[in-house]
Backbone:
């Protein structure tokens, strides 16, 4: 089965740049696609210093939906947004003051990859953190999701004023230029050895090395059913886990809401925006009822996805019904996109009911 490799190198222009991320892309791009992906044949998607987080999200979403193994190579720098203090991957226009609007939230990457089966996704990361983010990382786990392998390093700001070199990712590229991709644990170890020889500061880095989930992962069975077009089977399996989690942990528990979110994504993949929108509305409401703040990333993501799926509903009656609920939700959770509530109200007016 063909694989996919996504090469993402991003860092701000100007004085805020901590790492010369884009310099590694020509070296990685010289590696044959099949070697980058670790498969017989592969597609490669390359993003060099992208400007817009939504554009990166679109390419990431397409790569995550592709069948077969996926390897994501990320080189760049992490910064915290000032409002929620969550890590973001800085993009070309990012500054300390505008992180929330110009950078890619790291939890977007986690969310887009969470439906992939265990063992099918590998992240290779060479990241620098600014001082504030480096201090945050000392007290918080860097969460890239539980169902895939994550290897790499996160380094502190470089001691010099000039940007640091992405020596770990250059080490990855040097190993792969040999014409084969060793097991990821070996690839990681060899890249670290090469980086240590080039960069004396690697001893202070936060190292990432963790395999993904054990056989029997229910997400793998669900993903297999989706790939085979057995959408009802996939939803039935997820519904069973949702009910089990609700019985064990309660309807508002994270374990339960995870499976409700999976079912919302499955409805989207099955082409059923009504069911998907309804499920995302349920998730957002449950999180708010459980005391989560409207600005919490999981609440905002649920509201945004409900809104997106609502826009795909073709049946006017269903659009009216769910639109009223969405307008009420947007009144509490406006999200990052300015004008979201106004958009719902305009569309409801077009459908003949007040927002």
Residues:
């Amino acid at each position: 089965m063909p694989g996919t490799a996504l090469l993402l190198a991003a860092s701000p222009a100007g004085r805020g740049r901590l790492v010369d991320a884009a310099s590694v892309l020509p070296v990685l791009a010289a590696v044959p696609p099949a070697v980058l992906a670790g498969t017989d044949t592969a597609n490669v998607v390359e993003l060099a210093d992208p400007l817009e987080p939504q554009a990166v999200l679109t390419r990431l979403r397409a790569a995550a939906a592709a069948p077969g193994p996926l390897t994501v190579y990320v080189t760049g720098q992490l910064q915290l947004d000032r409002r929620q203090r969550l890590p973001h991957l800085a993009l070309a226009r990012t500054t300390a003051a505008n992180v929330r609007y110009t950078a890619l939230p790291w939890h977007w990457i986690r969310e887009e990859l969470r439906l992939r089966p265990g063992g099918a996704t590998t992240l290779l990361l060479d990241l620098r953190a600014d001082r504030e983010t480096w201090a945050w990382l000392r007290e918080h786990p860097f969460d890239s999701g539980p169902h895939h392998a994550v290897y790499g390093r996160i380094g502190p700001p470089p001691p010099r004023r000039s940007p640091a070199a992405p020596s770990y990712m250059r080490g990855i590229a040097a190993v792969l230029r040999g014409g084969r991709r060793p097991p990821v644990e070996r690839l990681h170890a060899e890249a670290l050895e090469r980086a240590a020889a080039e960069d004396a500061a690697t001893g202070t880095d936060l190292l990432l090395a963790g395999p993904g989930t054990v056989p029997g992962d229910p997400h793998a069975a669900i993903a297999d059913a989706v790939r085979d077009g057995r959408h009802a089977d996939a939803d039935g399996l997820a519904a069973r886990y949702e009910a089990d989690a609700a019985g064990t942990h309660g309807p508002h528990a994270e374990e339960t809401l995870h499976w409700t979110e999976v079912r919302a994504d499955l409805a989207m993949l099955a082409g059923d925006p009504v069911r998907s929108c309804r499920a995302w509305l349920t998730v957002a409401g449950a999180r708010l009822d459980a005391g989560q703040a409207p600005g919490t990333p999981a609440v905002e993501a649920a509201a945004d996805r409900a809104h997106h799926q609502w826009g795909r509903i073709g049946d006017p009656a269903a659009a009216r019904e769910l639109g009223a609920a969405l307008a009420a939700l947007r009144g509490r959770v406006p999200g990052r996109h300015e004008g979201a509530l106004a958009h719902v109200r305009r569309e409801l007016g077009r459908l003949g009911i007040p927002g």
